[in-house]
Structure to design on (1079 residues):
């Protein structure tokens, strides 16, 4: 049997699903190959879904997608060993439909998305690993799988195989990832009754809360922690640069365990039944780490192309958007009867440059390097801020002015006046 | 579906008056299983449990013996009386010499139809589960399989049979509404053995099964007994030393065998160990392996997953060796040693050898 | 030869949790798998197919999602697949399940006679091992449970010889076809599907039968109505009263730990002393 398709999509995460769905809806013959037992089986974690990217692909997704809670409150905590200083933003406006951000459980969400993909006419094959790309000279003409009789041909292959993208590395499309370009994240889900979550987080119905965390929890490594509320569970996790883990010889699980024991976090999880999940990499290298993302007969989307906005913890929306834009590029070329050559596929890069994806990544392009070189953002500052808060709030007979002076002195002692100024400037530049 | 608890609310409220055609069904019957001339211990356990049920209902407890000859049957009936039966139905025929589904189903179904018990219990053995499924389907009545608890519902005198489901994660209690008899197979080694009282007697009621060997389609060509004696012993061993994946390498499993030798114990294992081929499959303990009930169970390198737990938690004393203080096995073991099994096992072997040597001297 | 394999889609029991407060099952996120014991039955059927070029049909009764279980079976090499699905089947116990499956098998038989029906030893959600015997009884087929090996199939004489696990040994049984075989676990390893089979399974147009299509007229025999047993209560096993007593010593040396354990154990559980009787013969 000689199977032949217009496009083969490797991977059934958000990026692959967005691409396959978009292609099939315009009549392309699409094969999608996923290594996991079913789409989402390797993606058990809870996550945040940004509605906009999905809405552009499936406008009425809210009707049947498995959404957990819509977010009405965002907290940011800077943690010290026993305390935190934090801010929170909560607005009743977030409770007016259509909602903008949801918590989801990836296993269920990916399964749902994949069902839509199938209904759109894509042939989805699971439990099959793509082991290599079939080349005709420089041109990608199909894929090789781990099954007998497993060479399949197509006019284009979309690599949506996630952060490791062994395929791209094997084919030489992309260099080895540097340990400082990826974060290693671990995540657990703790099951709790719905009512407990509602009362603990002060929400009703399907309203939800996110807590973003930084500070002592990462033990001086560059990274952040997070906590999301699902319907009947809480997702909690922490991620730090792989290079830092190597340097510190800490295991991510030990880090997470300590984080869960923090006196501000432990009560939120108390009584829950924990399910543990394996660690996962997040591309955090930002703009500068994006490899070539197209060539003769191939395109790269999602995490494979390092499309993650580490600052705002956005990934799935970039994945879906890159998947959609890659598909739209192929659809346009097909309708113009143009071949899927590298030259023509350059349009994909151009449309990305125009989109929020590249604009956002460009905006923060220097941040990864700055934080990497300036660990004080993750060590000294959280501690100083917690001490400051403690000093200010304690009513102990010391006048406020004296307190402020003491705080200022502590900051300067820790970072020097110039250092403080420099840090402020670096951050300001990075976010500008 | 099949007896998985419904996701909606349980249907326990569906109560109905017993159909008039079943009101004459009285008494508790226990199927007496025997192999190679010996009664299977589960039958004694059932007689003990059946006795309690019968007393609660104020009815008689009957054993049902199917055997090849009157001589063989009589000995089985006598044992049934010693263990609590008031009477026995004894069906004998050469075609019943060894277990086959067709003649056994036919004979047992006929006895049930003729004598109309309200409860019929069998052991959840390969024989009992084969036979019970066919008898229940022929009689069109309910059967609760592999039970671990039996009770009488005081409201309506019906049998409340409790069994594990979802691999032991949950238990459910099942009622058979409006059909008789209420049938259950019961897991061996779950109920206690009743006291054997040789002063007890009972009535034997002879049955005359209407069987013709030529009409029986299935023929036994051969019976191959388990040559490896230890295979059959596991389920009835007093002491079991079991090893899990925590032993890391197949050659470390030797430490388990050594300790077992020092104790005169049997060797058990978890599923991953069996799958890795360190020991044969007949040593697997748990949901998809054997259920054991020793006096002492020593678990080395075993995490205590629920699928393993259901097979061994009936042990009187459980000793767990595991370096992970949070391992689930410590939630239900009697004693725990938080340490490396590769060091503890040899120390135990030496200590127990010393202990037995000292005992011998003392005698 | 025509072999029919009954398979069931079940929640992966290893991942089922009980709600800590309400004691109900939390199915959220629990993946559905093909009952592992049924894959053993399917593989055994496929091996017979390899030997005798039999046709293998898979049959399942379940919700529409059970389709994925059938596709999996097709990818391994089953020829045809039938999904029996109808709201009226919901809540079936083993008696009602075997009624519906037997009815469907009769219907399949009209099209092509069935020589063998394979089922798994048991399901991992129900754990009853009753559906196989139920089907055999309803269809008047010979029943061979806990089969660990198929020694011989003699199509000419319509006979099959198998090994059946029994208490204390193995029965070698010969019987006439058609027969129902429930297959013991661990006797084979499922094959790895080929890419062409994956394609065929993904594209295969399933036969879907509702109650009427399966030729079932009597609704009192199926689903909740046809089930003499009812679940009156579901609950989590009571955890052992207390956690393990952790043996601790000053030195934490293995010998000291063991000595402390033995002392405790023999004081609190005197019968254990007598239970120990070391084996004279050393193993080699
Ligand atoms: C702990 C954690 C928390 C996160 N939280 C958020 C969040 O809150 N919001 C957010 O927007 N993003 C979040 N992200 C990022 C987000 O998960 C990713 O950006 C997104 O999943 C990328 O999608 P993808 O389709 O490119 O890759 P993936 O989701 O990784 O999918 C790749 C798929 O390809 C398959 N595959 C790989 N290789 C092969 C092969 N050779 N053959 C066949 N199949 C193959 C894999 O099995 C996988 O299913 C988080 C990530 C992590 C790790
Ligand atoms: C349908 C189904 C049926 C199943 N049936 C069964 C069954 O019948 N029987 C069964 O056993 N399982 C069964 N399982 C598997 C079960 O879920 C578990 O996976 C299994 O019991 C785990 O075995 P384990 O404890 O040996 O391994 P693990 O869970 O890997 O545990 C190993 C333990 O060893 C400890 N350890 C590590 N190093 C050492 C050391 N140096 N010394 C001592 N301890 C150490 C670790 O801390 C860990 O706790 C079944 C699963 C399913 C899904
Ligand atoms: N709903 C069903 N559809 C198809 N086969 C089933 C179904 N339920 C049970 N079986 C078969 O019967 C066997 C025994 O199931 P059980 O009696 O539930 O333990 C299983 O291994 C399956 O082969």
């Amino acid at each position: 049997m000689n199977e032949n398709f217009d496009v083969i999509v490797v991977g059934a995460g958000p990026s692959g699903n967005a691409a396959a769905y978009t292609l099939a809806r315009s009549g392309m013959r699409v094969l999608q190959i996923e290594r996991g037992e079913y789409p989402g089986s390797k993606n058990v974690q809870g996550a945040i879904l940004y509605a906009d990217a999905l809405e552009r692909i499936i406008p009425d997704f809210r009707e049947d997608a498995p959404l957990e809670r819509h977010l009405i409150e965002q907290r940011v905590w800077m943690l010290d060993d026993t305390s935190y200083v934090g801010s929170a933003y909560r607005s009743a406006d977030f409770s007016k439909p259509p909602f903008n951000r949801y918590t989801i459980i990836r296993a269920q969400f990916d399964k749902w998305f994949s069902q839509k993909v199938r209904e759109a006419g894509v042939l989805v094959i699971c439990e099959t690993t793509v082991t290599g790309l079939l080349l005709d000279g420089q041109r990608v003409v199909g894929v090789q799988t781990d099954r007998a009789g497993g060479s399949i041909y197509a006019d284009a292959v979309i690599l949506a195989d996630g952060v490791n993208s062994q395929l791209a590395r094997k084919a030489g499309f992309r260099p080895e990832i540097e340990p400082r370009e990826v974060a290693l994240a671990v995540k657990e889900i703790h099951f709790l009754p719905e009512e407990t979550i509602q009362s603990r987080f002060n929400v009703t119905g399907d309203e939800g809360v996110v807590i973003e965390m930084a500070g002592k929890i990462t033990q001086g490594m560059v990274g952040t922690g997070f906590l999301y509320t699902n319907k009947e569970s809480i997702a909690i996790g922490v991620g730090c640069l792989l290079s830092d883990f190597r340097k510190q010889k800490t295991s991510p699980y030990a880090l997470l365990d300590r984080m869960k024991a923090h006196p501000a976090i432990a009560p939120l999880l108390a009584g829950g039944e924990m399910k543990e999940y394996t660690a996962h990499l997040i591309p955090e290298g930002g703009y500068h780490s994006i490899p070539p993302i197209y060539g003769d007969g191939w395109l790269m989307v999602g995490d494979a192309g390092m499309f993650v906005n580490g600052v705002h913890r956005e990934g799935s929306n970039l994945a879906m958007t890159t998947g959609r834009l890659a598909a739209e590029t192929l659809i346009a070329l097909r309708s113009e009867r143009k071949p899927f050559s590298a030259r023509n596929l350059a349009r994909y890069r151009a449309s990305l440059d125009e989109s929020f994806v590249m604009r956002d990544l460009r905006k923060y392009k220097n941040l990864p390097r700055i934080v990497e070189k300036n660990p004080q953002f993750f060590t000294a500052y959280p501690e100083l801020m917690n001490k400051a808060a403690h000093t200010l709030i304690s009513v102990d007979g010391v006048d406020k002015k004296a307190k402020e002076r003491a705080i200022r002195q502590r900051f300067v002692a820790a970072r020097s006046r110039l250092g403080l100024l420099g840090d402020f400037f670096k951050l300001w530049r990075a976010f500008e | 579906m099949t007896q998985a608890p419904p996701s909606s609310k349980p249907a326990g409220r569906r109560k109905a008056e017993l159909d008039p055609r079943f009101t004459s069904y009285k008494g508790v019957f226990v199927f007496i299983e025997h192999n190679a001339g010996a009664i299977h211990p589960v039958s004694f356990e059932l007689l003990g449990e059946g006795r309690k049920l019968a007393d609660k209902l104020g009815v008689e407890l009957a054993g049902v013996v199917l055997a090849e000859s009157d001589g063989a049957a009589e000995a089985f009936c006598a044992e049934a009386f010693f263990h609590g039966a008031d009477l026995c139905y004894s069906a004998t025929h050469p075609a019943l010499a060894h277990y086959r589904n067709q003649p056994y189903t036919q004979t047992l179904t006929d006895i049930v139809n003729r004598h109309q018990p309200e409860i019929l219990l069998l052991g959840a053995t390969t024989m009992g589960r084969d036979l019970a499924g066919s008898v229940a389907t022929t009689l069109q009545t309910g059967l609760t399989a592999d039970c671990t608890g039996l009770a009488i519902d005081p409201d309506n005198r019906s049998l409340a049979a409790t069994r594990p489901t979802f691999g032991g994660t949950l238990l459910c209690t099942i009622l058979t509404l409006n059909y008789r008899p209420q049938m259950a197979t019961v897991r061996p080694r779950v109920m206690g053995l009743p006291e054997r009282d040789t002063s007890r007697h009972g009535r034997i009621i002879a049955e005359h099964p209407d069987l013709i060997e030529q009409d029986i389609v299935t023929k036994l060509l051969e019976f191959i007994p388990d040559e490896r004696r230890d295979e059959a012993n596991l389920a009835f061993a007093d002491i079991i030393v079991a090893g899990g994946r925590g032993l890391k390498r197949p050659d470390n499993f030797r430490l388990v065998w050594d300790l077992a030798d020092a104790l005169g114990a049997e060797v058990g294992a978890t599923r991953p160990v069996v799958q890795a081929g360190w020991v044969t499959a007949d040593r697997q303990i748990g949901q998809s392996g054997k259920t054991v009930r020793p006096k002492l169970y020593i678990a080395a390198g075993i995490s205590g997953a629920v699928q393993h737990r259901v097979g061994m938690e009936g042990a009187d004393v459980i000793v767990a060796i595991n370096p992970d203080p949070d391992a689930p096995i410590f939630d239900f073991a009697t004693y725990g040693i938080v340490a490396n099994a590769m060091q503890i096992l040899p120390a135990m072997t030496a200590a127990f050898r010393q202990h037995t040597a000292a005992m011998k001297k003392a005698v | 030869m025509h072999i029919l394999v009954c398979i069931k889609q079940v929640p992966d029991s290893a991942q089922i949790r009980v709600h800590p407060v309400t004691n109900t099952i939390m199915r959220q996120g629990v993946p559905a798998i093909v009952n592992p014991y049924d894959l053993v039955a399917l593989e055994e059927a496929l091996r017979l197919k390899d030997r005798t070029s039999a046709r293998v049909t898979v049959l399942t009764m379940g919700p529409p999602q059970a389709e994925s279980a059938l596709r999996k079976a097709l990818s391994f090499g089953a020829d045809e697949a039938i999904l029996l699905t109808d709201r009226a089947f919901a809540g079936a116990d083993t008696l009602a399940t075997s009624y519906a499956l037997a009815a469907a098998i009769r219907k399949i038989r009209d099209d092509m006679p069935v020589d063998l029906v394979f089922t798994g030893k048991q399901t991992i959600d129900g754990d009853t091992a009753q559906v196989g015997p139920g089907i055999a009884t309803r269809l008047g087929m010979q029943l061979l449970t806990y089969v660990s090996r198929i020694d011989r199939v003699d199509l000419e004489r319509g006979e099959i010889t198998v090994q059946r696990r029994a208490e204390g040994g193995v029965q070698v049984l010969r019987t006439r076809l058609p027969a129902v075989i429930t297959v013991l676990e661990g006797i084979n390893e499922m094959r790895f599907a080929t890419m062409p089979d994956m394609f065929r399974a993904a594209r295969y147009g399933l036969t879907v039968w509702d109650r009427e299509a399966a030729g079932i007229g009597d609704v009192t025999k199926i689903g909740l109505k046809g089930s003499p047993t009812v679940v009156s209560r579901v609950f989590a096993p009571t955890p052992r009263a207390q956690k393990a007593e952790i043996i601790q010593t000053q030195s934490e040396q293995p010998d000291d730990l063991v000595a402390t354990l033995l002392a405790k154990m023999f004081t609190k559980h005197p019968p254990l002393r007598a239970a120990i009787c070391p084996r004279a013969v050393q193993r080699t």
